[in-house]
Amino acid sequence: MFRRKLTALEYENAQNVDLTEPRNFRALVSWLEDRKIRNYKEQDRTGLRNIDAPDWEQHFLQYLDNLVCPVDPLGGDRNAVLDWLLGYAVRLEFADKRQEYNNENKTTTTTTTTAANAPVSENPLDKLDFQHADFVRGVNSLADALNIAPHPDHLLRLKACSRLMQDRLQGYVANGKTFPAPEGQPFPLQDTDLGFDTKDPVLNEAAKILRLLFVHDIRSLQTRVNEIIVAAQKVTANPKTDTRLGKVGS
Question: Where is this region: Disordered (predicted)?
Fold first, then answer.
C-alpha cells in the first residue's frame, strides 16, 4: 500500500520491502528522518538510527510528537502512522523541488518572464505556510475539538472542519444569501436497516454511512436542479413582446 510513495521518495527496494518486519519499519523511519524530513539536527538522530536498541520505540513516540503527527501511535495501527510519515515526506520533497517539478517542461526564459510578471497577492492567507508545524498543530487541535477523526493529511481535516461548521454549527452566508443552520433530530444510524447483510458488523456500518452520504449528495443535486428550473421559468413565464411588430388583417 506504500509502494507509490516509497517509489516517489526513491527508497531502495521500494517494490519488495516488507514493512511488517519491525526492523525494516524502523530502518525506514530512520531513513525518512535522515534523507527527507530532517526535523532533528544531525547529532539528535542517534535514537532513531539505533534500530536494534530496546528504547527505540520511546524515541519513535517522541519523534512523532515533535512532528505533531495526528495519528495516535498507541492505537495499534502502524500502517496509518507510516502512511502519514510517508505523505509528510512526499510533501516536503515536493516543497524542496517545487520549482523543478512545476517548470519541468518550461524553458529558463519563460520561467524568468513568468516570475517577473507574477501578480503580488494582498491576501494574507496566500502568505501562510500550510505545512508549518504551528499550522498543522492548530488544525489538529480544532479538528479534535470538533470530534473529527484523525487523518494523515491535515488539510483534509481542515476541509472537514470547514464543512462541519458551515453545515451544522451556525447559519452561513453564501452569494449574498443567509442560510439558517439545519434543525431536527439526529438520524438514528444504528437503528437503520441497511437492506442487505455483509456478515460483517463494521462493514455494515460503513455501508450505512456511504448510503447516507449518497442520499445527501442526491438531495443537494436535486436542490440545484430545482433552482435552475425556477430560474428558467422566470425567463420563459413572462416573455417580452413588441406589439408594434404585430399586423392585423390582410
Answer: 103-122
Q: What is the pLDDT of residues 158-172, one digit of tens each?
A: 988 888 877 665 555
Contacts of 127 (CB under 8 A, 6+ apart): 121
Quick check: pTM over 0.90? no
Pair (174, 212) in one structural domain:
no
DSSP string, 179-234: EPPP-SPPP-GGG---SS--S-HHHHHHHHHHHHHHHHHHHHHHHHHHHHHHHHHH
Residue 61 to residue 67: CA distance in whole angstroms? 10
Residues forming beta bridges with residue 174, ordered by sequence position? 177
Are 223 and 136 members of one domain?
no
Q: How many domains does the chain have?
A: 3
State which residues form the domain around 30: 1-108
| Residue 30: Cβ-neighbour burial (10 angstroms; 0-12, 13-18, 19+) | buried
